[in-house]
Write a structure and sequence with these properties.
64% of the residues lie in helices and 0% in strands. It has 137 residues and is mainly alpha-helical. It has one domain (2-25, 35-136). The longest helix has 27 residues, at 36-62. The two termini are 16 Å apart.
Length: 137
Amino acid sequence: MIYNAVMFGFGVYYIILHPAYDLRCMEPGAEDHPDKSVERWITCSYFLNKVLDLLDTVFFVLRKSYKQITILHVYHHVLMVFGVYWLVRLYGVGGQYMMTGFFNSFVHTVMYFYYFISALYPELKSSLWWKNSSSLQ
């Protein structure tokens, strides 16, 4: 949850608050752009997080913990790993694809916060109105 919140914070700063970006149509920055190293770091961290999410799903399958996963869950995590890799190889880092990672990190932040609250206070689990946040994926 902390990682996703940090990535969401980077997304807010570098996409919404940073004047170098335009939300309508962002081109990948030039190689000598001052924020290019930050874009590379964010993209690499995001990709590694997607690999860890996929491994988490694989471990659910290996433990035969089928109530915790769905076909959509498996499809999403497989597609995210290969999709992020393909987009970075094809287009490089930065640009409009940063928005996809931003929204995905936001959804994961909300989802993991729900898991945190429901683990901390199990009696609230049934009354948390946003418990279906994973369907936003």
